[in-house]
Amino acid sequence: MLSFIRVSAAVALVLLPTAAGAAGEQKAAPILFETRQLDLIDKGGEVTYRFEKKGSDERLVGKNYADDIRLGVAKVDNNGGRDVVFKVFTGSNARDPQNWPELTINPLFIWYLDRAVSTFNSLAGGSQMYLKHKIREALGNATAEEVKTDYNGSSVDAYKVTIAPFVDDQSASKMQGFHKTSFTIVVSNQVPGYFVDLQSNFVSAQAAGPELKEHIKVVGMAGEKSQ
């Protein structure tokens, strides 16, 4: 899974010299891939995210579903790297926990990107490598908008990035109407784990096409008091 991180980080480094755009604009790639996203989670800390899937037609996009994703830090090394335990879903739907040492980035974002690719592939077809390339390319070219978002009862500074990587694709006509699919990412360095809100909006432009929306939103860190 972390291969998406390595390749996307390389894209961000290539784009760093052109990070400054129009007034108030910043390139999205450094913000998403070149940040220390786990610094606000100390040893023993665990952040919970709520995942929700809502579709217009169960036969075509599966059942609606909601569950939790948890990211915990087991150890912090001398350089600030975190040993991470990543738990996707609970109960009978739980995946095997995944463990990575010395991370500074949040694997939730990579899980989200990988899921976006696999879900789009299941709806619209196409090579997963090609779809991943198009999403990575769109993130590399995107700008980040300065916004305010709510966390733990307070308004905090954040960035929002929205991409529609397939809208002008040369193969758009072969994508079952899903070429207008969009992804929205909200991040804040004032929020533990950095990622506040991740949305995927799969909507077919075909008359009888289904709609599928997936949403991941930070809930908070265990033991954290609301303000």
Walk me through the structure.
This protein is of the alpha+beta class and 227 residues long. The protein has one domain (3-221). It has five helices and ten strands.
Can you give keywords for this protein?
227 residues; 10 strands; alpha+beta; 5 helices; 24% helix
Spatial gap, N to C terminus: 35 Å
- Main pleated sheet: 10 strands, antiparallel
Strand order of the largest sheet: 1-6-7-8-9-10-2-3-4-5
Q: Can you count the beta strands?
A: 10
Write down the secondary-structure element order: HEHEHEEEHHEEEEE
Specify the overall morphology.
Answer: globular
Low-confidence stretches: 5-23
The chain-level structural class is alpha+beta
H/I helix tally? 5
Radius of gyration, in Å, reads 18 Å
| Proportion of residues in extended strands | 35-45%
Indicate how many domains the architecture comprises.
Answer: 1
Write down the overall mean pLDDT.
Answer: 89
Share of residues in helices: 10-25%
Could you give the topology of this structure?
Layout (H helix, E strand, L loop, with lengths): L2 H13 L10 E2 H6 L12 E10 L2 H4 L3 E12 L5 E7 L9 E6 L3 H18 L3 H14 L1 E9 L2 E10 L18 E6 L7 E9 L7 E11 L6
Antiparallel strand pairs: 1-6, 2-3, 2-10, 3-4, 4-5, 6-7, 7-8, 8-9, 9-10
Helix pairs in contact: 1-5, 4-5
How would you concisely characterize the structure shown here?
This protein is α+β, with helices and mostly antiparallel strands and 227 residues long.
